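Entry for the shared binder. Reason: the reviewer on the internal report wants the predicted structure included alongside the sequence.
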Amino acid sequence: MADYRRIDRNTYYRKGVFRHFSEDCKCSTSMTARVDVTELAEWSKKTGTKFYINFLYLLTKVLNSRDDYRMGYLWQTDELICYDQIHPTQYVFHEDTETCTPVYTTYTEDYALFYRNALEDVEKAKQTREYGLDMVNHPNWFDASFLPWLSYDSLNIELPDGHLFFAPIVNWGKYREENGRLMMPVSVRLNHAIADGYLVAKVFVLLEKEIAAFCFC
């Protein structure tokens, strides 16, 4: 089982917001913005590595950097928790069937190890056409889905009202050139009980910071 700590709702720094958006107005908050990935695309090409896996690594690093992005809810016991670590559920698209297979990749801050494991996980998933989603045994995995067919402007992920699902849902599309820079649409969805506009926007700020540090280290 995933390691986590229980959050005392009486001392939780967002207790007022949490109560309101988990009881009075159950909803999520999402945002789409374009992230400058020029340096990351160039670095990936120069090193012969896959841009997609490199971005997945940096995204997961960002989402592990704050407790707010690692929150969870145990409906069986009505407990608010924070996971020690969260991991990405990436996807393999099968051209012949036009279906996807979820790929559970374990996060480690060791880039080389993560990269190798992510590639191996993808290759294994290519051998099956099963959907194979297993959230029961992967409670601290978040959805990370690449949409390579379109450089979109907006994307919304809807969940049923009243469903306290706290894991981040992140999508990103094809990057395109804008004024000499490569800009990529990224969409981030979080439950409003544990995140507001500031925390969603912070994901994008941290992403650009991590991309810069990664490419110029």
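Summary line for the report: Residues 197-215 form the longest helix (19 residues).
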